[in-house]
Design a protein that fits this description.
By secondary structure, the chain is of the alpha+beta class. It is built from ten helices and 17 strands. Strands 1-2-4-3-5-17-6-16 form an eight-stranded mixed sheet. Strands 8, 10, 12, 13 and 14 form a five-stranded antiparallel sheet that branches. The chain has a two-stranded antiparallel sheet with strand order 7-15. The chain is elongated, with a radius of gyration of 23 Å. The chain binds the ligand CC(=O)N[C@@H](CCC[C@H](N)C(=O)O)C(=O)O. The ligand CC(=O)N[C@@H](CCC[C@H](N)C(=O)O)C(=O)O binds next to strand 8. This is N-acetyldiaminopimelate deacetylase.
Length: about 375
């Protein structure tokens, strides 16, 4: 059977769903997977995710490939004729591309299994609240636990169809950040009788900017981004409540701890200064993505021998990925797949060049064949 992986990417693009809501996505993936020859496949669903094991011909280990499935709460502005059908939601981080590539590679191995087993993990909720940790705890993962694990992420700033990676640290530690402030609402004309949380939140957002500029060692790196503020009810009512939502990024667990301590000190200052109550919630935390040196060396050697593949050795990035939680358990590595888009990840206009999809399917099929046939350059 012949498949059009770009068309399948477009179908996935039209139905973006948030973390652990990937019901239609799971159904579409299962529908495609069930069209592949089933002789060598075993399938288990887990929440909105899927595990597919390709039984090897003479296995001594299991090589894993992980892809993420969720979209983001962004209103798409690409103007594609296959634009998202889910209002306010978009595949703006390329997980539609990731899934179509995984399907394409799986379709090959369903017909031509390698010597070792392959395990394809379709993981929900990468953007949040984090599907990796509960997936690691799941029954199918424990039963089919891979010995090595690999994954990719699209990269808008690399030429389409090229790859980029490095040994060691690739992506940062992340922590979500939610701060709820509660004061006293009142009439806009009587500020002296109220306790305005819009003003308190504004001060706090400004103070949070000093953590990276004044507290983190300039030779280290961290990010504190506030992506959303909500507060108040209308223009002539003093806000009783405000909420700040953001993310923290760091290159080590130690500096993550320091940033959090500083946030707590600043929030304490706001509570004292504005006589309000504040609650901090760190939401989900992702471990840094640390690429195994030997396996990355092998990947680099494979790239050098693969025809028509350009490999960039990149710097680490402050992006986060809960793939880091898998790599804390299992050796493996992750790489960027160039898709050349004028607009970046999490942009409403992200426009990955689809030519990268068939190229990545061919390349990955080669790489996983090399792995599953015992290749270790
Ligand atoms: C590759 C990528 O964009 N990943 C996300 C991961 C989100 C982590 C978490 N929800 C957070 O916001 O801290 C990223 O934003 O880097």
């Amino acid at each position: 059977m012949k498949y059009d992986w770009i068309e399948i990417r477009r179908q996935l693009h039209q139905i973006p769903e948030l973390g652990f809501e990937e019901v239609k996505t799971q159904a579409l993936l299962l529908d495609k997977i069930r069209q592949f020859p089933q002789k060598h496949l075993e399938i288990q669903t887990w929440q909105t995710g899927i595990f597919v094991k390709v039984n090897g011909t003479n296995p001594s280990k299991t090589i894993g490939w992980r892809t993420d499935m969720d979209g983001l709460p962004i209103t798409e502005e690409t103007g594609f004729d296959f634009v998202s059908c889910h209002e306010g939601k978009m595949h703006a981080c390329g997980h539609d591309v990731h899934m179509s590539i995984a399907l394409g590679v799986l379709a090959h191995f369903a017909q031509h299994p390698g010597r070792d087993n392959l395990l394809f993990l379709f993981q929900p909720a990468e953007e949040g609240p984090g599907g990796a940790l509960p997936m690691i705890e799941s029954v199918p993962f424990k039963e089919w636990r891979p010995d090595e694990l690999y994954a990719l992420h699209i990269a808008p700033d690399y030429p389409a169809g090229t790859v980029a990676t490095k040994k060691g640290l690739l992506f940062a530690n992340t922590s979500e950040l939610f701060i709820d402030l509660k004061g006293k609402g009142g009439h806009a004309a009587y500020p002296h009788t109220a306790n305005d949380m819009v003003v308190a939140a504004s001060h706090l957002v400004t103070q949070l900017q000093t953590i990276v500029s004044r507290n983190v060692d300039p030779l280290d790196s961290a990010v504190v981004t506030i992506g959303k503020i909500t507060g108040g009810t209308r223009q002539n009512i003093i806000a009783e409540k405000a909420r700040i939502e953001g993310t923290i990024r760091s290159l080590s667990q130690e500096s993550m701890k320091q940033v959090k301590q500083r946030i707590e000190a600043l929030v304490g200052g706001i509570e004292a200064g504005f006589s309000c109550e504040a609650v901090i919630d760190y939401g989900s935390n992702y471990l840094q993505v640390t690429n195994d040196s030997e396996l990355t060396h092998d990947f680099i050697l494979f790239c050098e021998t693969y025809p028509d593949m350009t490999l960039h050795i990149c710097d680490e990035a402050m992006t986060g990925e809960d793939f880091g939680c898998f790599l804390d358990e299992i050796p493996g590595m992750m790489f960027w797949l160039g898709v050349h888009s004028e607009y970046g990840l999490h942009s409403a206009k992200l426009n990955p060049k689809e030519a990268a999809i068939p190229k990545a399917i061919g390349f990955l099929t080669g790489f996983l064949t090399h792995k599953a046939d015992g290749g270790n350059n």
